[in-house]
Design goal:
The complex is a heterotetramer, with two copies of chain A and two copies of chain B.
Chain A: E1 4-7, E2 10-18, H1 23-37, E3 40-46, E4 61-69, E5 82-85, H2 88-94, E6 103-107, H3 113-118, E7 135-139, H4 141-148, H5 156-161, H6 163-174, H7 180-189, H8 194-213, E8 219-222, E9 231-237, H9 238-253, E10 257-261, H10 268-275, E11 283-286, H11 290-302, E12 306-311, H12 313-329, E13 333-339, H13 356-361, E14 371-373, H14 379-394, E15 397-403, H15 404-408, E16 410-414, E17 434-436, E18 439-441, E19 467-469, H16 484-500, E20 523-528, H17 532-544, E21 550-554, E22 556-558, H18 564-569, E23 573-578, H19 583-592, E24 597-600, H20 609-628
Parallel strand pairs in A: 1-8, 2-5, 5-6, 6-7, 10-11, 10-12, 12-13, 13-15, 14-15, 20-21, 20-23, 23-24
Antiparallel strand pairs in A: 2-4, 3-4, 9-16, 14-22, 17-18
Helix pairs in contact in A: 1-6, 6-8, 7-8, 9-10, 9-14, 11-12, 17-20
Chain B: H1 40-55, E1 62-66, E2 81-84, H2 90-100, E3 105-111, H3 112-118, H4 120-129, E4 134-139, H5 174-180, E5 185-190, H6 194-206, E6 211-216, H7 228-231, H8 236-239, E7 240-243, E8 250-251, E9 257-261, E10 268-271, H9 292-298, E11 308-315, H10 321-336, H11 340-345, E12 350-352
Helix pairs in contact in B: 1-6, 2-10, 3-4, 5-9
Classes of the chains: A alpha/beta, B alpha/beta.
Bound molecules: thiamine diphosphate (TPP) (2 copies), iron/sulfur cluster (SF4) (2 copies) and magnesium ion (2 copies).
């Protein structure tokens, strides 16, 4: 049977099943095939807070969404064109996100009385017509898989486990994905159990062939490779990119990397990843708690290593006191906050941008800390390198903000050449720097006049023995001082040092293409962090519809780029979409007295391109009206 | 990096040595010492300054990390590298430093509040990890710096500013706690007994791994004479049990008291008028693998200080955390030196253009 | 407030009793239990639900406080008052509650990470204070909720996500640690042995003061079969030493093994083929004032689980913190009932106008 | 000899000596005498961070300043009219604050070679003419005291210790203070050592007589009692007033008070004070650390007590995570932050207002907490009662901000009648509140529609068994919920609850007296916390000089009074003086887009009235110029 092939410019596909069904793996593999094929892509995994919620329940559903296209894209997609649902719970939990006309592939195996009831289906949705506005492909994939594997001598249960590979094979056929990578992957993953490896490969082929031969599937789809800029690409998640950024930065600085961390979702994977790279001189220390994690990192920094600590909101709260110490010690230290929905334990597996104020202000006393935020999974690499640059140059703790969406989401990433990375070489102090007549001594708080950074003299350096501490220090000598004027000087100097970082960062770049008549926009949208993709997609959409809108995205939150105020003031309207109740907006209002409009969402979910499109559109209209009054 | 001769301090095998003779004076700083006149901290400082030259290490390779408290001021008075950090966290900072710098001799200076109240968790984890750090715990059984609240080592019923009707909680026995936390080295000394203190410092420094030294320290302002029983020449010999490895646990003014083991119950107890050849007299063995013996010793004294063992309770060898970490790293480096470009590219990269 | 008859749980002398017969069902909630199928937590939950009716307390006077971890979900499944708090801090919350409410039976539900890693300090302070709280420590030797990092009770060299080359730190022995922290009640049980677990729960509930119950719990996802040696019918009897107060410490499939005391060194050790009347066989005494014996017992097993004592190690009586606090308050109230106006005016007031 | 008596309307006196010299006690006694006499007064104790710094050194100097007057005053005074210096260090450390023409009483006993050198005096200031612009009374007070006590059989050292009472006697004579209180005090303080008591009383008399008889003192001064409103007064420090406020509030609520605290300067005295009042059912728990302190307080609140925790900045940092839990549990809890100079250990004995942003934002996630600040020592009482009111009414943690200046400073305080205090009675939940057909159950998150507060059902209440926790909860039932829309609802509801507190607080009261021509001010000064006294004094000064200025002081920082924006916008200039780098100013700018001018000082010292006078004056002139352009 010759099947029809349709061209698509972009597809959003979502795999959903029980947490035990291997949906994350399935999604990962499909992503990898897609990446290798050369599409641009963006992913959104989503899993329950429980390790294994009871099978077949709504809270137990795990899903993985992938958006791929023949052009550059910025989000994992608002709504799936294809939903793969492995059981009733998966169907129920996801159906509301699926637009009419979309394709639904369902494993019917569990669509039986009890299982349906468990998730609140009064009748079987596959037969009661409730799915009539979708293109439903329903089949007992489990049964087909076990039958396909009969010859492998596996138990029924073991065989049934391969159903995810069957589904993967089917959709791989459907979208013309290359299969070799998955086959190699399965062989190496199950190297110690060749029978399982072979069964999974067979299931994959069976799925592929099912698509190819069954009449149910009349059409397959082609999504051409995207015209990405030349270069070497890989698919990468935010947590891996961040880990690599740390390793690369340490290598470029010539310093050992020391991570002190306590596990917490969604930051733990950075600990896991770094622990695998001891060959780069990386030391990972799983501490007894977050306080010990940062304490050890600070101790390592004192000793001349690049000290790093990784955590999420609750951990930042606990680290606050030690961050304050690092501020006054003026030692390099990286604090990575992979934000999740709060307050308190909140929703640990869901993203939010609600720790910005904590990073800005979460310490007693005047204790300024620079803040850098990553905007996309791959960008976590560059944000990490930049944060390390600031920490090392200015001898200061630095916040690096990511979130659960970036951490686990992935995208193709242009692998940078090592030599393109900045040189982060550090000059440790080696000589006395203070001279009183003939006597030479070392003053740990004599600053570089340009950066205001103090010297970093590590133990083991002869002649520079010195003591530092958390009590206020005399300018220069670093001795304990209660002198009022000195305290004021030190407080203002620490603030000036952080403010001065603005001189080393690029000006805020506003993207505001003029229209045919040379007119630029009235409305500026300003974002930070992981909303970059959705904002950019929203901006593209309104522009496509002929409207003008300017976009700027902040990588540096503290200090802000020097021209930020000027940029904001040059627009009639400024809108700040955030996954919180308006934290950046508050900063911009306070700093620049600009009446920034907020658009906030706190649902533990990223923005959708469409919702922002609507927000932008109505603001553009408002602004236009204003202009006409 | 190592210079000079290794004088038998395995803990400092990797720490550069100096051939230049040092004296206590070399370890003094220009900072005015700011403890109350008469404070026991002075004696401890003097003992440390007097002992450090014996290590023969380069001064710049010694680091003192302290938390907050009166005791925590000590690093300012020692001409080495130092950090006066925050309350209870010195042990964490020392862990990071020791884990990354085998060429340093790392010391933690802490108090009974700093180490056992706010810092209790970090202390027990340090001990179980056996990080190569020497902890000097100045136990004055009171919060000195905050002007006299009771501490986790204050005796039950203690009347202080915060407990005007008497404290309600049974104190920790720091030695028992450390032994329960898998400590490899635990000792006790008294501020005023310079000789015994120095000998304990020596043993602690010699130990590779975490060493905990509890030092009874007089706070003459808020808890004066807390250890009088062990200091007063009229009483001290009758209540102090000096621990010497391999020696019988005899004590008392005239040596007629001893720690004996009940053959039936196995329990240790002090006894009077013990014959010279009584087989029940316990011979001290600080190197016993099983910490139960050292633990039993630690229970001889309660907070009334009667029958207080002083000296090294336990000193056994176990791989240190920092050493094991360095081994893992250096093995990985050797096996598989870091190819950064390879790491970044990964196995599944593709090229465009 | 008290109703019904006191059935001999001194810990609950002040807790209102019910005459209505209760069953396990009464303690179930409408919340779906969300542990992984096969998790040992189910067995523990069932044992707790099965045991609680025996207490005869009013359900509304029972409070379960947990931290964070898989185990910490338990309060949601028990129809009592409950709080699922934050990581490591349940003991602190329980302390405040128990100190103010003698009419409540307060339980802490915690894991090896929650209690011994981030919450280690609060745990040891709770124990030394002897607050009237029963702590159930679900020890699966792994971080379950965060998907499988090693914990402070994982064996040395453990390969986990965070330690791909093996962990480097010697684990805590929770029983030793608790004893070093002055605990008055310490016991150990195994999730799958419902009978022994229930008996330990009973003893713990009976104890007035802090009780620590370590429960070996299987995490079949991240650390499956960690306690197989003590569960497998082929091996369990040879490696489990059941502690019964007043009974000789005999064990083994055929009862020929025993814990004996070396008369010379006083050390405890397991021995094979021990005669029925061997005088060296230790007779278990959970009520020994001196914790040294219980400590020695705790050292019989290491992290390989060979010779694991199970049951009550120690159960002694000491005034509880909450009791003493209430006494001080009620004495003050009686002696000198609060005259608020007098307090505000103070001794040196003056009048104007 | 008949001595001249001069009238003064106000006097500032400072006692300074070694930390061992008993200057705090001397100051306290003089304050008490002055209070009893009926002057208005304000005090500022100042002591070194060390317990006993080495004798005779500058860091060892301890001082106590008292301002008293025949009218109402607001600060401890900018500069002393009389300095009592007990040794060279005390003279050296304080002389720069003393204005020309002021009186200096010096104990010459230690003005010898080594002691002078120790503090850096090249020559003896008493003889080298360097004090010629002051009225110096130098005498060997130590020697005179020991001689006066020869008959008491004390050691020289013991006798010399009474020199502070000699000095007190002298100045008590000088200012006509009543003596009986001090005599009674000494007798009771040294009740167990009658010889010491008698010696101290004798020293006091000797000092008095020394003033009366010596020709050196030709003049004594009278400062008439102030015309305070009718009522009963006592002298009170901020920490004591705060403690009493807590006790009174608990009594008015009928709840037991539970304090969980870890000692820290300058908050420890609240723990000490409350520990003394068990007779009011107060339970104090000295915890192992700050986290345990707040945890226990929260546990007590869960059980139906009024849970309180007291600390200073470093402790707040540590408590952050638990405060977040309290936010989401919605239980009453009071968090008292007695601020000190930061960051890190900073200057523990020195005040600062630099924890406002920490209180506002120091938690992960969106975790709003109401904030109340005290304005004067006596006001700590009322601020505590108000903070408790909010906590109990709205079932929320509340921040109460004080600082080291209020904590230790004192003033006469109009003792409130118990019945004038608000009724804080709490209605605990006792009944099911949710009905589903016939089934009645208890929903812990069903809110009061007015306050949005949830019910407080304490353990022991039959039928209301429920479980609460830090994971996001379903609106109403309180069950764990990961539902996105529910999360958004809960986040916004918690924010709305806190914002809604504004409806229960008085409008911001602006003091803006019209001048003779009925004109009001162009400039509004807005303050919060302990700067109230200095701001008020500064305002009075400029008004006295005929200028107009409006003043408003914020008691509630979160939420702000509903009319705050309106008030701010109705002035040409708004100035916000703060002892930080502009924290409240940032809030006002962000909330109301008002270009507030900041005046900041971070020296670990309060504002002086004179410096604010100058600031205000120049702003008033600027504003006037603007108006004329
Ligand atoms: C986070 C924090 N909490 C509390 C304090 C206040 N504080 C400083 S030292 C100390 C206790 C000191 O006691 P100890 O460790 O025994 O030392 P000592 O002064 O007795 O030598 C306390 C409570 C602090 N500095 N930081
Ligand atoms: C402050 C904070 N740090 C870290 C975490 C993440 N976390 C939750 S549970 C847990 C450890 C769980 O281990 P354990 O106590 O042994 O419980 P189990 O899941 O094994 O029952 C961790 C690290 C957290 N929730 N809060
Ligand atoms: S308060 Fe006590 S411990 Fe502190 S310096 Fe003074 S005497 Fe020493
Ligand atoms: S992860 Fe382990 S401990 Fe947690 S529920 Fe699953 S089996 Fe139980
Ligand atoms: Mg102490
Ligand atoms: Mg666990």
């Amino acid at each position: 049977m010759v099947k029809q092939v349709e061209q698509r410019d972009r597809v959003v596909i979502r795999f959903a099943g029980d947490s035990g069904d291997g949906m994350q793996l399935t999604g990962d593999r499909f992503t990898q095939e897609t990446a290798t094929f050369g599409n641009d892509l963006s992913t959104l995994p989503s899993f329950p807070a429980e390790i294994r919620a009871p099978a077949g329940t709504l809270p137990g559903v795990s899903s993985f969404q992938l958006h791929f296209a023949d052009h550059d894209i910025f989000t994992p997609g608002d709504a799936p064109d294809v939903l793969v649902a492995m059981n009733p719970a998966a169907l129920k939990a996801n159906i509301n996100d699926v637009p009419r006309g979309a394709t639904i592939i369902v494993d019917t195996h569990d669509f039986t009385g009890r299982a349906l009831q468990k998730v609140g289906y009064a009748s079987n949705p596959l037969t009661d017509d409730s799915l009539s506005s979708f293109q439903v492909h329903a089949a007992d994939l489990t049964e087909i898989t076990t039958r396909a594997l009969e010859s492998f001598g596996l138990s029924r249960k073991e065989a049934a486990r391969a159903k995810n590979m069957f589904a993967l094979g089917l959709v791989s056929w459907m979208f013309h994905r290359p299969a070799q990578g998955t086959i190699d992957f399965l062989k190496s993953k199950f190297a110690s159990r060749p029978d399982i490896a072979a069964a999974n490969v067979a299931a994959f082929h069976a799925g592929w062939n099912y698509g190819e031969t069954t009449e149910a599937f009349a059409v397959s789809y082609e999504v051409r490779p995207a015209a990405l800029p030349a270069g070497t690409y890989r698919n990468i998640t935010g947590n891996i990119a961040l880990s690599y950024g740390l390793i690369a930065a340490a290598q470029r600085a010539g310093l050992p990397l020391f991570l002190g961390a306590y596990p917490i979702t969604p930051a733990s994977d950075i600990l896991h990843e770094l622990a695998r790279h001891k060959r780069f001189g990386v030391r990972t220390f799983q501490a007894e708690d977050e306080i010990a994690g940062i304490g050890a990192a600070l101790g390592a920094s004192f000793g001349g290593a690049l000290g790093v600590t990784t955590t999420s909101g609750p951990g930042i709260a606990l680290k606050s006191e030690t961050i304050g110490l690092a501020v006054t010690l003026e030692l390099p230290l990286l604090i990575c906050d992979i934000q999740r929905a709060g307050p308190s334990t909140g929703m640990p597996t869901k993203p939010e941008q609600s720790d910005l104020m904590l990073a800005m202000h979460g310490r007693h006393g005047e204790a300024p800390v620079p803040i850098v935020a990553a905007r996309s999974p791959g960008d976590c690499f560059h944000a990490a390198v930049e944060a390390v640059r600031i920490a090392l140059t200015y001898r200061t703790p630095v916040f690096l903000l990511s979130d659960g969406y970036l951490a686990n989401g992935s995208e193709p990433w242009a692998v940078p050449g090592v030599s393109e990375l900045p040189d982060l070489h550090v000059d440790f102090a080696t000589e006395p720097n203070h001279f009183d007549g003939d006597a030479a001594s070392f003053w740990p708080y004599l600053r570089d006049p340009d950066t205001l950074a103090r010297p970093w003299a590590v133990p083991g350096t002869p002649g520079l023995e010195h003591r530092i501490g958390g009590i206020e220090k005399a300018d220069g000598s670093g001795n304990i001082s209660y002198d009022p004027a000195n305290h004021e000087l030190m407080v203002r100097t620490r603030a000036a040092k952080v403010a001065g970082i603005a001189r080393s960062i690029p000006a805020l770049d506003v993207d505001d293409p003029a229209d045919a008549d040379g007119r630029t926009a009235d409305v500026l949208v300003v974002g930070w962090g992981s909303t970059f993709g959705a904002i950019t997609a929203g901006v593209r959409r309104v522009r496509k519809r002929g409207m003008r809108i300017a976009q700027a995205h902040l990588r540096h939150l503290n200090p802000l780029p020097a021209n930020t105020g000027e940029m904001l003031r040059s627009y009639r309207r400024v809108v700040v979409p955030e996954l919180n109740l308006g934290q950046l907006a508050g900063m911009l209002r306070a700093d620049f007295l600009v009446d920034a409009v907020t658009y906030n969402k706190v649902r533990g979910q990223p923005f959708r391109a469409e919702e922002l499109e609507n927000v932008f559109e109505s603001l553009i209209c408002d602004a236009a009206e204003d202009a006409h009054v | 990096m190592s210079e000079g001769v290794n004088l038998g301090f395995p803990a400092f095998a990797d720490v550069p040595r100096t051939d230049v003779a040092q004296s206590a004076k070399d370890f003094k700083t220009d900072q005015e010492v700011r403890w109350c006149p008469g404070c026991g901290d002075y004696a401890i400082l003097a003992a440390v300054q007097g002992f450090l030259p014996e290590l023969g290490l380069r001064r710049e390779n010694i680091v003192m990390i302290s938390g907050i408290g009166c005791s925590a001021r000590l690093p300012y008075y020692l001409n080495t590298y130092g950090m006066h950090s925050i309350h209870g966290r010195a042990t964490t900072i020392a862990t990071g430093l020791a884990a990354t710098r085998p060429d340093l001799s790392v010391w933690v200076i802490t108090g009974d509040g700093d180490a056992l109240s706010i810092g209790g968790n970090h202390l027990i984890h340090l001990l179980r990890r056996n990080v190569n750090v020497t902890v000097l715990l100045f136990n004055n059984r009171i919060y000195g710096l905050t002007k006299g609240q009771y501490s986790p080592t204050s005796e039950l019923g203690k009347i202080t500013k915060s407990t005007p009707a008497g404290s309600l909680d049974a104190p920790f026995n720091p030695v028992s706690l450390a032994l329960g936390a898998e400590a490899t080295f635990v000792a006790r000394a008294i501020d005023s007994d310079r000789k015994a203190l120095t000998s304990v410092l020596r043993a602690a420094a010699r130990h590779r791994g975490s060493s905990l030294v509890e030092i009874y320290q007089n706070c003459n302002i808020y808890n004066d004479d807390a250890f009088a029983l062990l200091k007063d020449p009229n009483t001290r010999d009758d209540w102090t049990i000096r621990l010497e490895h391999g020696e019988p646990l005899r004590f008392g003014r005239d040596g007629t008291k001893a720690v004996i083991r009940d053959p039936g119950s196995g329990a240790l107890a002090p006894a009077e008028d013990v014959d010279a050849d009584d087989p029940r007299v316990v011979v001290h063995d600080a190197s016993a693998e099983d910490p139960s013996y050292a633990f039993a010793l630690s229970r001889l004294s309660g907070s009334d200080l009667r029958y207080t063992p002083v000296g090294v309770f336990r000193s056994v060898s176990r791989p240190t955390y920092d050493e094991l970490m360095r081994e893992q790293v250096s093995q990985a480096e050797k096996a598989n030196g870091g190819d950064l470009a390879g790491l970044l590219r990964g196995p599944d990269a593709w090229s465009v253009g």
